[in-house]
Amino acid sequence: MGRVPISPRRAGVAVTALTALLASGCAGEGQAPAPVRPEATPTSTASVAASVAADDPAGRAAALAGTLGDEDLVGQVLMPYAYGSSATTVTPGSAAGNQALAGVDTPAQMIAKYRLGGLILVGFSADDPTSGNQSTTNVDNPAQVKKLTAGLREAAGKLAAGPAPFLVGTDQEYGVVTRITDGVTTLPSALAAGAADDPARTEAAWKAAGTELAAMGVNLDFAPVADVLATRSTVIGSRSFGADPKRAAAQVAGAVQGLQSAGVAASVKHFPGHGLSAADSHQEVPVVGQPRAELDATAFPPFRAGIDAGAMAVMSAHLDVTAVDPGTPATFSRKLLTDVLRGELGFQGVVITDGMNMPPAKRYPPGEAAVKALLAGNDLILMTPNVGQAYDGLLAALRDGSLPRDRLVAAVTRVLTMKFRLADRPTPAMSTLDSAPHRAAATALAAAAVTQLRGKCGVAVSGPVTVTTSDGRDKTRATLTAALTAAGVRVVAKGGTRVHLVGYGDGSKDLAADAAVTVAMDTPYVLEKATSPTLLATYSSSRASMTALAGVLAGKARPTGRSPVPLTGLPATSCTG
């Protein structure tokens, strides 16, 4: 498939002009609110949208936005989560969760009541630094996800904004933050891609991943992570492409191009750069205290690269950036989102908040937080802790003039523009999921990532081999055992050459002093304390990464990766020949 046409920069020019026309005569800041427009019907809005050329998504968006009443305008900027694995049939527990969140029983009812523009699918795994704001899961398997997204779109198609495709998003970063894990091609982590340092391989792998998301009905991925790993952050960690801004920038561009060529919008995150602080915004407001020059040189290049690659969305972060707007989280900072991101970096696409159910955003009531976020420059409010309160707060602010109508119309028009850019794309078949070509793309990226940090390069381990891991990694041990066996290496329960695996959250206490080989499957920092004569890093515990590791251990592949982060006492690679 070709890449989705019309960059956010160019689309932004049309959006600005058309929304200005739509908002003229409407309430601006300090003016009396305009009269409420009658609610449009899906039929009338469909005809309006159809009257604009199909290859003009910004024009279609502005035309549709001009037909929407207050309630539909407000709904288009909300993207909450919901409880339940089906759009219309949920368990009593899920119904109770939806009642507390939005005063309804089912996701479909939530869409109808609040005229929603989109919904995020949520869930988490054991090694997930984002689990704090994942209150539920509605991702079980690909067939269930496909049925759920179809039900969500059926409900949204009845709304006045129905002609624009409903947004279904998720955090499919690959690595420790991966919502859909079973029955799909699992790519190695971003840090693994950084170690491979091959943007073409990254683009090919992310195109495969995007195709599978599109097949399941997901059209917005909150990825890739554009944060440069300037600190040893555990919340970002292997979600980042690395510590080198230039190399990370090339990887971000490759991932964006791969996703969007498959018809899935990319949302680069977390602007202006979560990797510059080791604190966790799922718990507090991290302070980014670096001077502005360091932000320009270190934090911003991957975001610029993502924007230049055509990223349709950027996610803002709950970060206090003292060099630009001290004391104000970026989520609520006009200086950062409007002046810097739009004005200086030139981004004209959709700006999306990070989860508004995270503590830094919950300093304000949901309605007030949503209004402040829009005024700062966000266009889409993600994961509000109370849908009804956010909706009512936005509607009240629109009608009393504290939220200027032209600001809301501009946000809605950007959201609709993104939707129309995603429209009319053929849906890939479910048979593409975990297909041989997709697995090959993931394995090629994972193989290029494997890094040797100590020991003679590319020498096969002497068999037989015993595989051990830190606690809780039985599945990964089994995956590597199967891959080694397939590569011709005999694996025994004990007594063989010990290969020890460590992963996310592990420290020196999880190392094995008698291991001949220690392998880091997340950030490689733990290897600084390892005494094994051979040290390897895969940066990922995915099936593709374990297959690639088996090839190296069997002596059938050379570890060509280089550590994308600096390590004390270790080289970027011991394979110098």
Automatic annotation (TrEMBL):
It comes from the Bacteria. One of its GO terms (molecular function) is hydrolase activity. It catalyses: Hydrolysis of terminal non-reducing N-acetyl-D-hexosamine residues in N-acetyl-beta-D-hexosaminides. SUPFAM superfamilies: (Trans)glycosidases. Its EC number is 3.2.1.52. Residues 557-577 are annotated as: Disordered. Residues 106-417 form the Glycoside hydrolase family 3 N-terminal domain. Keywords: Glycosidase, Hydrolase. It is an enzyme of class 3 (hydrolase). InterPro entries: GH, Glyco_hydro_3_AS, Glyco_hydro_3_C_sf, Glyco_hydro_3_N, Glyco_hydro_3_N_sf, NagZ_Beta-hexosaminidase. Belongs to the glycosyl hydrolase 3 family. This is beta-N-acetylhexosaminidase. It comes from Micromonospora humida.
